[in-house]
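Replying to the earlier thread about multi-chain prediction with a worked example.

Input:
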Amino acid sequence: MTLLSVENLSVELGRRPVLHGLDLAVGPGEFVGLIGPNGAGKSTLLRSALHLLPAQGQVRLCGTDSTAMSARERAACVAYLAQEREIAWAVPVEMVVALGRSPHRPGFAALTERDRAIVDAAMRRMDVEAFRHRIATELSGGEKARVLAARALAQDTPLLLADEPTAGLDPAHQIALMRLFDSLAADGRSVVASLHDLGLAARWCSRLILLDKGRIVADGPPSGVLTPANLRAIYGVEAFFGEVDGAPIVHPLDLAAPD
Amino acid sequence: MSADRHYTLLIALLAILTLALFLLSLTTGPAGIAFAHSMKALLSDKADGVALIMREIRLPRALLGLMIGATLGLSGAVLQGYLRNPLAEPGLLGISASASLGAVLAIYTGLSASFLLALPLAALAGAVAAVLVVQAIAGARGGALLVILAGIAISSFAGAMTSLALNLSPNPFAAVEIMFWMLGSLTDRSMVHVWLAAPFMLIGWAMLGSLGRALDALTLGSETAASMGIGLRKVQFLAVFGTAAGVGAATAVAGAIGFVGLVVPHILRPLVGARPSRLLPASALGGACMVLAADILVRIVAPERDLKLGVLTAIVGAPFFLWLVFRTRRSLL
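Result:
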């Protein structure tokens, strides 16, 4: 079963067309990196897949037409890690993470033992257990990002859409997050994450989708998408390409000469 | 967990305080009646003077204080949570201003003198009109910013129309009546006012009270909340119409009582661990305490001068709010 399928998806923001008839399908066990320059439409694609923006075309989540699903049914299929790290009130970290369980609880029900276990596991995986009782708004940017990632993990969905999840994290936590997404994929779940760090994308993703000006220009394994020609044409950069232990290394070096 | 016990304790204390202030309100007044005597009279079915004072004057006054305070506190907490803005308050949606305008027009046209409920009904009509316009402007998809902007526009317009009514007022007595009404008061209300306001307030409480979990999720922003299964249109509808029903009815029977919906959620937020869903019951009880206490104070401070309730809440509320802002500033530095 495909977890996410998008057919002929077009989106206009204001009157400006942002996406032009996109098609893509994500099956189980994939860690998809969504890459492309600023303004390529990465966030718009994620948000319209989540039904957060009015869009034309068809989006199917966990095999069902998303327009026929309630917000709660969608929440049982897909979790979203937003780019803005908004926490409006000075609430404890633990409560933020536990919010991830709310789509699974009826009415005013309290957290069950199982909910607590999932919340604890999510906090352990994101390495935020140590500050579970601290006030979330008083954390550093990177710590806040990890708490919000733990919240998305606690939603415990087959599909996770993450908008620039590694921004603001230190290298160790960036790699830990990539490893985590990789292990989710190994469990048969799927992650679609927009990324700006091509090195991380090349090394950890099982598949990359390269967007430019609202269109998919390349889709496939990292070695097929991150080519010198694509980086020059889409990003306008020259890069170093290498390999360590069978995994590709890509590191942008300088601006490409204008043609 | 200790946070849970702390919260239960807070709610219990607020409930006890509310009950105590309610009883105190019942036993405060120009007719100095002893506590035991007044309670006995209230519960008896005799029709002597004391029983009449208790049932016809003090009971409706205390009940309205309780209901209006709870409505203002609850809707303040909901609107701050929904708009994710600590400055939000029921007046922001333009409902108080429009309800006032409805009442003012009733006084201005003389309609209010024609039958007892003419004024509160006109005020309710004003509140309904305001909420329909706000909802129409903000649209079904809405968004917090549009709700705020539409509310401010409605508030300003209703305020301008009220000024116009004062300006063109046929005689100084009508103008004074309008001014006094707008200050907000619980003096000389009857059980009829209670029965008029109660159904709207109960509907309002049910709508606003159902929003706890949605408001918790909205802590992380509207898009994340939507991705967690929160229907934003429904939340907007419940927040806006719930406030209109409750605050519209409150303004209709007592005039505009400011600062309660703004200050009470502020005071209580740190005590409930800032969690929006927990703030709702706490803020409803806190609002009831504040209005009951203020209404007792107006009777004690100046029993002969008919000090208006809305004036007192503003006089006490504004400096207190200033102190809160000052404290916040210190924690930001």
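The mean pLDDT of chain B is 88.

Feel free to reuse this layout for your own posts.
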